[in-house]
Amino acid sequence: MGSVLNAILKVSSLVAALPQTATNGKSVLGTLSAPKLADFLTNNPLVNGYPWGNRDAVHTNPYEQSPTTGVTRSYDFTIARGNIAPDGVNTSVLLINGQFPGPTIEANWGDMITVNVHNQISNPEEGTSLHWHGILQRETPWYDGVPSVQQCPIAPGKSFTYNYKADLYGTTWYHSHYSAQYAGGLFGPLIIHGERDRSPVGPKNEPYDIDVGPVLLGDWFHRDYFDLVKQTMQLSTQPPVFSDNSLINGKMSYDCSLITDGTACTPNAGLAKFSFTSGKKHRLRLINGGAEGLIRFTIDNHTMKVMANDFVPVKPYDTNMVTLGIGQRTDVIVEAKMPSDSAVWMRSDLSPNCAIAKNHNGLAAIYYEKANTTTKPTTSATPYDDSKCGNDDLDKTIPFFQFPATQNPATTQQIDITHNKNATGFTVFQMNGESFRANYDHPLLIAANQGNTSYPDDPQWNVYNFGTNSSVRIIFRNLDNATHPMHLHGHNFNVLAEGVGVWDGKVKHIENTQRRDSQMLQAGGPDVPSYLVVQYETDNPGVWPFHCHIAWHVSAGFYINVMEQTEKIKQKTLPQSIGQTCMDWYEYSGHNVVDMIDSGL
Predict the structure, then answer these.
(1) Phi and psi of 160, rounded to 5°?
(2) Cα 337–28–338 angle (5° rounding)?
């Protein structure tokens, strides 16, 4: 048992020593006053009683039949530096509107979401951008939010407005895609309400009574993210970056005796708290918004029913533990079956076998309606198998809507992943022998729109141009001994197979494979590689990143761009704001040194 966990279990009650403003700024996440979520937002037209009409999870193809509500949800974000103490340790962070985690974005399926972002990062100044994880960005590929790919960075003192459709529904998050800024606090939840348990036609998805809302999980670092990037990008003799803590909705406590450099630390800073109602079923929207660590999520004395992975509703199945790689989301239903005065621990463990962490244990308290909300739970942890650094077996995860993979894809690409020293002695990740490095001044989507789709002089951009091929199968072979949460922008992919060794060509549930936008690739090696086989239809013209979502691995170049339907890219008309943002960036970078020490993303 770690010293941080010991320090928490020694306290007599869970009365926080710090106010919420000191730990999380203006955010209310992690408090009992955090609002529960409604079934959907109602200040909009309701067709057959629902914003999305009679669409449901079984009969509706979400990629071709998403609604258009005509409603726009508008948000205004100011990004600036600040100091908070999420676990009691004073830390320099990046905040959105003074909040950590950032503000919750809510919309209905089919709404437009508009976010006006103001870059007020100073001392020192930095560029920034925001990526809307899992949003397909059909018709709006320029708002995906990756600098050097779809846009230039938002220059210090400048603003940029993202405007995109809530084209899928469920649970996701947004985060900076500029270097490793999101490891410094620049992220928040994004909830899109959609079909759930009262659909007017067809079989029901899994019913529940109370939507508890987002449960953001993840590792936490006391050092500034830029210092961590520097450590990552040092010579190969440097140790890996270890996280300091495991947060739940931005909160945890810390053993202050571990602080040796004089940094201010307050014991028993305060844990996240949640409320349950006896006899009711509760929906928890789990999100791994960390930088490196794979999460094992459990609730003492409770079973969870999985109802969705990423943006894909699945046929419900019971589990005692949920595994979440970086960027992955899982929606679960938890029925409150204990006495009304019960208090239990919620646990977010950074996997002892699969994460690089100093403290592996994250805790939050769940209180039933008659429990004393300052009492310390005394429940025991649920045992689980930590041996596999991967997701649940593909046999378990069957999507509600049947979307078979094409048995004979138009093209197949194998990508070998290695971890090697480059010419200067730095260790980088390579995909088919090439490590990625961004060029903030020349976004690839703008170049493709202008007819430039070949980059023989810039192999470090790692562009795979699949042209007019209607479907793509990618076989990742991991010759590295680390695990990698693989995330594709602009698509949900079919997961055909994953494992260790040589793929035998067999597909799990080819008539209805697991689909998601992020999937764990297990650890491999040069002698016995692991594999992940995915497939998707190239029905979304654009340039889409496909990368490991571990922040330090992306910093070290673990990243490719997949380009599709180039002729259709040329036919698109990019908003003038895309060009203006680049002009603003050229003006800034022409007079200031941009300290880009990693891949840039």
Answers:
(1) -150, 140
(2) 10
Could you say which DSSP state residue 550 is in? -
Cβ proximity of 131 and 137 under 8 Å: no
Could you count the other beta carbons within 10 Å of the beta carbon of residue 138? 18
Is this prediction's pTM over 0.90? Answer: yes
Cβ 511 vs Cβ 396: under 8 Å: no
Q: What is the CA radius of gyration of the chain?
A: 23
pLDDT tens figures, 523-565 = 999 999 999 999 999 999 999 999 999 999 999 999 999 999 9
**Interatomic CA distance for residues 66 and 54, integer angstroms:** 11
Q: How far apart are CA 318 and CA 141, in angstroms?
A: 37
For residue 147, whether the previous peptide bond is cis, meaning omega lies within 30 degrees of 0, is no
Contact 355, 293 (CB under 8 A): yes
The burial class, CB within 10 Å (0-12 / 13-18 / 19+), for 495 is: buried
b/e string for 564-575 if b means 16 or more Cβ within 10 A? bbbeebeeeebe
C-alpha pair distances (Å), 405 with each of 293, 295, 497, 506, 533: 30, 29, 12, 13, 12
User: Residue 253: CA atoms inside 13 Å, Cβ hemisphere, count?
Assistant: 29
Report whether 248 contacts 364 (CB < 8 A): yes
3-state secondary structure 464-476: EECCCCCEEEEEE
d(CA 551, CA 293): 10
The answer to whether the CB of 95 falls within 8 A of the CB of 84 is yes
Summarised one tens digit per residue, pLDDT across range 364-419 is 999 999 999 999 999 999 999 999 999 999 989 999 899 888 889 999 999 999 99
> Within 10 Å of residue 499's Cβ, how many Cβ atoms?
17
Q: What is the DSSP string of 119-146?
A: E---SS---B-EEETT---TT-GGGS--
